[in-house]
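Attaching the record inline, Q. Sequence:
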Amino acid sequence: MLRLYRTSIFTATIMVPIFARAAEVPLAGCYERVYDASHLAAHTGQVVTRATLLVKATETPMKTPAGDIVADGDLRMWARGHKERFDTMGACSTTAGGLSCDGSVSAAETHTCKAETTGVRECRVDLGEAGGFEIANRMKDVVVTLKDRLELVPAPYDGGPFLNLSGKDTENRTFLLKPAPVERCK
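Structure, as predicted:
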């Protein structure tokens, strides 16, 4: 059962539906990067070995105090030493440089991590702190940059381990992804 929830930071203001055409969604498409052995050898602190990002028009556009939710950013990452992939489904609003996406929250009940360091953990970030990421255009590629931190969850999204990434970790904070066929993002 899918138990990963898209989140958006907002105050006690009512969210109002908006309508956006797919053409209005910046950076729509599939992007991917697979880090080769030589890159990973040069970046021994990098946990992420592969990343994909699918940006598409959201099915439920909304106006919020934080911005208009116009897109979904489905970010998937694979970590060293783990076969499963870790996912977050971001609700994204437009920014001057691209998109700002909130991380999703898993319904799993697991104790909160005391450390905020990067890694695959059997604990999770606090429910109100699933984190988020920014997506910026870089020619035909995109740059995905973590905000403070980000939690990603393996399917079926109802338990760990969790991939916790820290925005302070220079080896696991910014990812350059290239356009890819949409099948690579599914």
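DSSP finds one helix and 13 strands in the chain. The chain has a mean pLDDT of 83.

More tomorrow.
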